[in-house]
Design goal:
Helices cover 38% and strands 11% of the residues. Strand 1 and strand 2 form a beta hairpin.
């Protein structure tokens, strides 16, 4: 076991070995970081924009919608959605139809029936 004096010496050496390029928590982020974020295709589309897109505009391979009411999730491949609903169909409308076709929450009241779509951003 090292003595307290040796431990202090080792700690001082460890602090000196920390590279100066390591960013402090409040330091400015490098320009390369921001460039990579802005070039990411998901950077330009928030959830509302994605829901309003035509199926032909969506680059994702799998589309996923979940019900906020019954916690059920439905997935469909984009190619299958285009084949079934057409290239110009809006994703929000397709998602609602997918959930409604297999809805398990039926009360008999039109306002209360059906699922409440929650769009996953994955």
């Amino acid at each position: 076991m090292p003595t307290p004096k040796q431990m202090d010496k080792l700690a001082a050496e460890a602090v000196q070995k920390i590279p100066s390029s390591a960013a402090a928590p409040d330091a400015e982020l490098p320009a390369e970081y921001w460039d990579s974020l802005l070039k990411d295709p998901r950077a330009g589309a928030n959830g509302l924009q994605l829901r309003q897109r035509h199926l032909s505009e969506i680059q994702r391979h799998v589309l996923r919608v979940s019900c906020r009411r019954c916690e059920r999730t439905v997935e469909i491949q984009t190619a299958d959605a285009v084949r079934l609903y057409g290239r110009n169909a809006i994703w929000k409308d397709v998602a609602q139809r997918l959930l409604d076709d297999t809805c398990r929450q039926r009360t008999g009241c039109h306002e209360d029936d059906g699922c409440w779509p929650g769009f996953d951003m994955t």
